[in-house]
Structures are given as C-alpha cells and as structure tokens.
Design goal:
By secondary structure, the protein is an alpha/beta fold. The protein has 2 domains: 3-96 and 289-315, NAD(P)-binding Rossmann-like Domain (Rossmann fold); 99-280, NAD(P)-binding Rossmann-like Domain (Rossmann fold). It has 13 helices and 12 strands. The radius of gyration is 21 Å and the shape is globular. The relative contact order is 0.15.
Length: 319
C-alpha cells in the first residue's frame, strides 16, 4: 500500500479524497523544517507539496519516492535535476489555478488605477472633502494597453477580463503561436523591449528560471512610461525588488502590485514594505475557497491517478 505524505496542510476536500481511499496510507506533515523532512519523508512513496522546500539533500534520503504532486503550477521549491536523474515524477495542478490568479491581477490593477486604498483611508480619516479637491492621479482602464508576459492558463483567463474593460492587450510569450494569441483578441509582441515602451500596464505570470530571473530590472523599467504600473503574481525574483523600489521612488514608473517576493515572507527591512506606491499581498492569488478546494482535490487526484496509471498527461511536468 503506497504511503503518501501531505506536506503542509491543504484544503480538507483534498485530504479527504486521499484519506478516504483505501488504497493509500496518508500522513499530514506540518513541520516544514529541513531536519524534520529528512527524518520523515524517506518512509513515503508519494508526496503532495504546497509550501516547503524539497532539495537534493532531502530527496537523496527518499529511496522509495516515486512522485511529487505540487499544489499549484510552480515548482521552484523542488530539485528538478535530482528528480529527473532519479526518475521521480513531478505533477502540477495545471487546470485549476487560473481563474483566481487572473482575478487577483485585475483586483490589483483596479486598486492601483482607482486609488481604492487611498480613498478608503481618506474617508475613515475624515478627509472626505480634501479627497474631492485632490489632483486627479487615478485613471481609466478604457483604451489602456496591457502587456501580458506569459500566456499560459492564467494569461488566457486574464485577456478575457482585460478585453471586458475595453483594454488593448499585447502578449509576450515566445512559446505561444501568434494565431492563438490573435484568436483570443490579443497582439503578439516579438521584441520585449519594444513592447515595454508602448504599454501602460505590465502583468507577469511566468515561472522562475534562469531565463526569467530578474527579467524586469531597472533597465527594463526605464523603457516604460512614467505613468505605467507593474503587476507580478508569478514568482519573486522575476522582478528585481531593489530596482522596483528605486523606480517607484524616482518616479520612473507610477506604481506596482506584488503578490510574490524574492524571500517569503519578506524581510522586515525590505524597503517595499514601507513604499506606499506598491500594493502588496501575501502570495494570495489563489486564496479563494473555490481555488483552494479545486487545487487540493486536483493535487490529491494526481497522486491517485499516478498510482492507478490513469494520469492526465497535462498534469505531468516534462523534466
């Protein structure tokens, strides 16, 4: 009977799916320290993984391990090189984590463009009249141009929402055919630098790897309009945080929204925590009851399907 480690808690719907399946023995592991994972994980045949890092030092102790099922689509918290060399499969929730992140991007765009936080606080602080006489720094989304970097499932959900606001949508993704982008109402951008010069809003939904690390740095930000905003819900490290802080302070760009950070949680001395030109959230783009349930169910179902040899190939990461 395969033993499955549920590393970090997931929604109860996913836990129940595994625990109620008589083919498996399951255990929830909440202590994500490296010492505890090295101690616990060698006993298991499969792992579901939400938070926590599983590196080669941990994996080399796991002689029985056959599969890791990620609660999400990113996998920068596992050593994929070790997994490939040792024929350990990596699965993701490829069809569930797109609607909530796309909505979260729109939430950030709307919050920044409409000054929601500023207005809300002003009313609470008794500054109702002063806000009515303020210089108008908020802006409409109508006819604004957004560049979506990364046109996977999140990007395809996002484009529909942007078009609903009558925005012009550009897409930069070297791996997606121009015809697919155009069929959904977008325009394919072949040169990132040229695209950055044109747009009002930049949204990133890409994995973190050697090609995307520091993809948006000060040099790139200087190409953008001073009125532009950057939204990053993908992975910390895709946008250089020091450069972003400088760009905001020096009015190189107008604003930013970050759901992810280079270090999570961010250090208390991270200057972005004190920068009022950036909207922050705690890696929460999937924090909806619907998404939490569906991701947990898919994470668990991937494990079940793997051992039953019925796995949907769309869930398999090609290592």
């Amino acid at each position: 009977m395969p033993k499955i480690a549920i590393v970090d808690t997931i929604h109860q719907d996913g836990i129940d799916l595994l625990k109620n399946n008589s083919k498996f023995e399951c255990e929830i592991i909440k202590d994500l320290s490296k010492k505890n994972l090295i101690s616990k994980l060698p006993d298991f045949d499969g792992i579901t993984l939400r938070r926590g890092k599983i590196d080669s030092e941990i994996l080399e102790k796991c002689k029985k391990l056959k599969v890791i099922s990620r609660h999400g689509v990113g996998y920068d918290n596992v050593d994929i090189n070790f997994m490939k060399k040792n024929n350990i499969s990596l699965l993701v929730t490829g069809t569930t984590a797109s609607t909530s992140p796309a909505e979260h991007i729109m939430f950030m765009i709307l919050n920044i463009s409409k000054g929601i936080g500023l207005y809300d606080q002003a009313v609470r602080d008794g500054k109702f009249e002063s806000m009515m006489r303020m210089n108008y720094e908020t802006f409409e989304l109508f006819n604004k141009k957004i560049l979506i970097i990364g046109f996977g499932r999140i990007g395809k959900k996002l484009i529909k929402k942007c078009l609903g606001f009558e925005m012009e949508v550009c897409v930069y993704d070297p791996f997606v055919d121009k015809k697919i982008i155009e069929s959904l109402g977008g325009k394919k951008i072949h040169n990132l630098d040229e695209g950055l010069k044109e747009i009002d809003i930049l949204s990133l939904s890409v994995p973190l790897n050697k090609d995307t690390n520091n993809m948006i740095n000060l040099e790139k930000m200087k190409m953008m309009k001073k009125t532009s905003i950057i939204i990053n819900i993908s992975r910390g490290g895709v946008v250089n945080e020091q450069d972003l802080n400088k760009a905001l302070n020096d009015e190189i760009i107008y604003g930013a929204g970050l759901d992810v950070f280079e270090k999570e949680p961010p250090s208390p001395d991270n200057p972005l925590l004190r920068n009022k030109k950036v909207l922050l959230s705690p890696h929460a783009a999937t924090f909806t009851k619907e998404c939490a349930s569906s991701m947990a169910i898919q994470t668990a179902q991937n494990i079940i399907d793997f051992f039953d040899k019925k796995l949907n190939e769309l869930m398999i990461v090609k290592l």
